[in-house]
Amino acid sequence: MNASAVSENENAGPFEVTHRLVLSIAIPMTLGFLTTPLIGLTDTAVAGRLGSANALAGMAVGAVLFDLLLGSFNFLRASTTGLVAQAFGRGDRREEQAVYWRSLIIALCCGLAIALLSPFLLSAGLFLMAPSPDVAAVTSTYFLIRALAAPMALGNYALLGFVLGRGQGMTGLMLQAIINGVNIVLSIVLGLWWGWGIAGIAWGAVIGETTGMLAGLALVVSRFDRRQRPARTEIFERERLKALFSLNRDIMIRTFVLIGAFAIMTRIGSSMGPLVLAANAVLMNIFLVAGYYLDGLANAAEQLVGRAFGANFRPAFDRAVKLTLVWSFGLGIVTTLLFLVFGTDIIGLLTTTESVRAEAAKYLPWAALTAVTGALAFQMDGVFIGATWSGAMRNMMLAAFVGYLLALALFVPLLGNHGLWLALNLFLAFRGLFLALRMPALAGRQFAGQSRI
Prior knowledge:
mainly alpha; 19 helices; disordered N terminus
């Protein structure tokens, strides 16, 4: 079965889930996600050549603040994927378009609010981060310019959610490549060659997001069937909007809890001294690398599970869960082994400070293990988003967070930073296990009367 043909298939109903179909979504999105760290590396390299430590530090603070802010709105991408995938499975092209326009309008409104409130958001961020006055001045320049990109950045969340919902992984990769590629090139051109400095780096991001959104709009809208165009009353139908807001709310709560868990880890690590904090920051890059391809497989689960729901076809649901689970754990195990073998070399690439290298090496096995303990969590997130079981996903995240806090209270006093990393691995495991235990009952209700494969 040709993967690209499957993604463009306009026929609803039963379909076959194969390894090739899973990978046709997961691999392009993984490659797209892997372009994101290149932006950070490029921006850091450009800022590092401006001859000022304050420039580098100020840009880093501004980037963290903006990324945390945008990350809080990732629910726009997730909810769009789940709802579009279900409409795709039903063969309801009219509702696919309606979901897209609803999500895009919400995204643009949220982005405009961020841009208008950016001075207040900046003040709050500077209060929390408490940088020196010179660093704060650079942060202000960077953040206020980047905030202009918020409507386009959130609009790209809706675009990406739409193409993923239809299983168009290569289109998603192309959009990510456009956004990140333009960003990287213009950061160098504007920041260094034209001498705009930090402002040039920020404008590179703004133009990259804008270019990506315009390209995405042209591509997506040009493919819409005009005969299936939804009326304005359908787009703003009260019950549909209510369902979308409810879904977004639950995913947003889940995202905030996740951000809070990592913030707590950073805070506890900082209390153990700058050496431990620096070592943990280096090791978190290992977890993030594993997260890129696990996210790609989660995207595959979102689309295939959502499509199976729309088609009301349990064999496809069961097969999608099984195959994405196999790939998640398989790649997680391989990654853990690779990090255990080559982890010290990777640490050496990330830092030249010998004391930080030695400290990070102590906790390397815990960081490597996150690829395995996180495999089920990422995959189950994809299943629950595709099924739009947002309430259950929110509740299981809260339960896992309680378990995480208990693990921190128990193991950090006993084991120090080893206990901190143990608690993180338990948190990841709790998330996956709690969702997996909840899934059979929910699937049974959804596919009542249908036999499992």
